[in-house]
Specification:
- There is one protein chain.
- By secondary structure, this protein is mainly alpha-helical.
- The protein is built from 11 helices and 3 strands, in the order βααααααααβαβαα.
- 50% of the residues lie in helices and 7% in strands.
- It has a 3-stranded parallel β-sheet with strand order 1-2-3, covered by helices on one side.
- It is globular and about 50 Å long.
Length: 198
């Protein structure tokens, strides 16, 4: 929204921070910090987790970005397949969150019983990877004029150093939580609420 409607967006908050290393000519101060200042413990451990996810965990994104309709038919045809597809992410992308059966079935039911069906949630991957003007790659670059808040969670899928996150826009808030993963708003909503209130 910040990219498309900067005059209408008062501020943005991100907890899945997808950014790139600062470049010398576009972010000279951040580049020097990135090259010469030490990273904290979270930032030092981030590369390993991010690399593991990039090499072993992105299969879902690859198929959703290229053949979403094929996968959509398969998920719409089998409630067991849909359960397996979603449960794998709920289990693997959290910070050891103790999912109850009711929570898992609620998540699966949202996809299964929605009017659009399970395939609707897949299409955004295709759209964002094929839109060169407003897609995912562009949203990872600097977006001016909209104040940006960044919340870092230790078990997010990809983790980047703060100097990288600061290349995404005019950062006015940053936090590091002790727990939480990709579904931080579900796992530890109090942390997200506290960050948004700050």
């Amino acid at each position: 929204m910040s990219l498309l409607y900067p005059r209408s967006v008062r501020a943005a908050h991100i907890n899945m921070i997808r950014a790139h290393a600062p470049a010398l000519f576009s972010n000279p101060i951040l580049y020097l910090q990135h090259k010469f200042l030490p990273y904290n413990a979270r930032e030092k451990g981030a590369a390993g987790r991010s690399n593991r996810f990039a090499t072993e965990g992105r299969g879902y994104s690859n198929i959703q970005s290229t053949k979403p309709q094929t996968l959509g038919y398969a998920l719409a045809d089998s409630p067991t397949g849909l359960l397996a597809w979603i449960y794998e992410k709920l289990h693997g992308w959290t910070d050891e969150y103790p999912w109850t059966d009711d929570e898992i079935l609620t998540w699966v039911s949202v996809y299964w019983f929605s009017t659009a069906g399970p395939a609707a949630s897949l299409r955004i991957y295709y759209e964002s990877s094929h839109d060169t003007q407003h897609g995912r790659v562009r949203s990872e670059l600097y977006i001016p004029k909209v104040p940006l808040g960044l919340s870092y969670f230790p078990k997010e899928l990809t983790l980047v150093p703060k100097t990288w996150g600061r290349t995404m826009g005019p950062v006015v808030f940053e936090s590091e939580s002790e727990r939480g993963g990709h579904f931080a708003a579900w796992e530890c909503p109090e942390a997200i609420v506290a960050d948004l209130r700050t």
